[in-house]
Design goal:
2 copies of one chain form a homodimer.
Chain A lengths: L6 H9 L8 E3 L6 E4 L4 E11 L10 H19 L2 E11 L6 H18 L2 E9 L3 E11 L14 E5 L4 H10 L7 H8 L5 H7 L5 E4 L4 H12 L1 E5 L8 H6 L4 H7 L6 E5 L4 H10 L4 E9 L7 E3 L2 E2 L12
Helix pairs in contact in A: 2-3, 2-6, 4-5
Chain lengths: ~325, ~325
């Protein structure tokens, strides 16, 4: 029989400082946390798991793992237009990592992101086992205003935020142990920026929204399927950062389409609101790019056309390090 | 590179029927779920992870694993006096289990408990990796009425629900591959009964409450530490089921004190409310047993006395199958 990891003291030793007091009636250290909810709000809830060697290299630093895990989860809140407020952490760690140094690094990484995005850790469970991190984020949305995948209509304009392909380029560099080359890409991989402020603003303009975690082709197809529409995009219009356009000229188009791990938002805006939206986005300094248009779904249920061709590109899905 | 498990289709194929519609504005299939909250309620949130070979034998059936995972999580709601309403599932499965048979069994087990306790699955994430299940349960509590570990006062009466030691006896039988002997114990291990109705009623009587997952000694000590009091219990008064008293006469007292995995409630009731509480418990047919009394904390900070002796028994903690 193995000696158990003492969950009770681990959580209070390393993570208790992360529990803020924003509407938290009971925080870490009880059987459950209790949170106060305002009457005119709904709660958004999302869960994501990151497994070592699947979602991050198993030799990544504890701080990197923690920042990536929380950022990726916060991105789901951005996609709903929710303001993230609280999160729970289920941390499974092998015994050799249950040392104070690793846990301190992990806790610091988590604290940094929690502070930046003003979210409080409200509960946790630490277990001995193969390294994996499951985070559940809770956020607030003004009642009835949440952004869904469903809701895109023919003639809506399709936008993406930021640049695409950076996640795949970073992964390529990690796999070729070449990350020192480009600190922007290291940051994009280990600290992908959840587009919270953009998402919160989009509730006033967008008809549908999704975050790009599996790649634009896969995620835009999900949005179209949920909305029962099709999308037509122009591959030349995809926003790609100059440094990867230059360094990876052969791969970069494919990465932007199917690479995944970008954590940008892909969303649709009714054409009648386009001008008003773009004025707002510009004044708020959000980088957004028009990449195509929504159309009615044809009889063959093709959700996506790229440069007027039915997409035959398969979705990239998750990246595996094994 | 491994082929990814398609999380999107797994969740919709196997788990979509589990999402009820109780106050769920947006259910499975979006970046996050959205739930409606009533104005006079607070939300209780708890997360627990079960890892194969640590919290259940790795050859346990998919249905057994699912029922145990959800029951154990619901027990945290019971301990808070919360009514569980929603849950998210983070399921990490090795590729060889990502077959329809295993997933169907898992989904059926989950559906059975979700139906019994009227909780809806609102989100999920399925990942390839070593088998583990993280569940986050959300429940409602009338504002300000949640039961905490903190709150016990000197002279409060200490109670436990049901019988103790069954979890350890079941574990013993599993480890000796002897579970066929006693179907009551098999059920206690794979379908521990979360004491939801008792917890919901206790908000009217109890000063503090905890669920017994790590063993009475460990969990009552947690309650005392949170309340800054000590507990004095009488080992002869611990409720033990006749069948394990007979079959395991040597081990049974130790199991009742430190065995863990019982998922009963341990709670304190001010003596002034004792009579009223016991009348209610009796009329509602809850089996509860007085096991001792709360006292002021002494200078040595001993949280627990058993039969008037300072407890030197170490907490059993988690059970490991490795």
């Amino acid at each position: 029989m193995n000696q158990p990891i003492d969950e009770f003291s681990l959580i209070s030793d390393y993570f208790k400082e992360l529990t803020g007091q924003q509407n938290v009636a009971v925080g870490i250290g009880d059987d459950a946390a209790i949170i106060d909810i305002k009457a005119d709000k709904q709660i958004a809830v999302a869960t994501d798991t990151l497994v070592a060697s699947v979602h991050f290299p198993k030799d990544a630093s504890a701080e990197h793992i923690a920042t990536r895990a929380l950022c990726v989860n916060l991105s789901d809140m951005a996609a709903m237009g929710a303001t993230p407020k609280w999160f729970t952490l289920a941390l499974t760690i092998p015994k050799q990592l249950a040392c104070s140094e690793w846990l301190q690094g992990f806790s610091q990484g988590l604290a940094r992101i929690a502070g930046e995005y003003n979210v409080s850790l409200i509960g946790g469970d630490t277990t001995a086992g193969p390294l994996s991190i499951s985070i559940t984020v809770l956020g607030e949305i003004p009642t009835g205003r949440g952004l869904c995948r469903k809701g895109a209509k023919p003639d809506d304009i399709i936008y993406v935020s930021g640049t695409l392909g950076d996640g795949a380029a970073a992964l390529h560099q990690i796999q070729h142990q070449d990350l020192a080359q480009n600190t922007r890409l290291t940051e994009r991989f280990y600290k992908p920026k959840p587009q919270i402020e953009l998402g919160v603003g989009l509730v006033n303009y967008a008809s549908a929204c999704i975050d790009i975690s599996d790649g634009l082709v896969a995620d835009l197809s999900h949005l179209c399927k949920a909305s029962s529409v099709s999308a037509s995009i122009n591959s030349q219009s995809l926003p790609i950062h100059a440094d990867i356009k230059q360094a990876y000229s052969k791969q970069v188009s494919q990465w932007a389409l199917t690479g995944g791990d970008d954590y940008q938002l892909c969303f649709t805006v009714p054409s009648i609101r386009q001008e008003q939206f773009e004025r707002w986005a510009c004044s708020a300094k959000f980088v957004v790019t028009t990449i195509g248009k929504i159309a009615a779904l044809d009889h063959n249920q093709n959700y996506l056309k790229i440069d007027n061709q039915t997409s035959s590109i398969t979705a990239g899905g998750y990246s595996h390090f094994r």
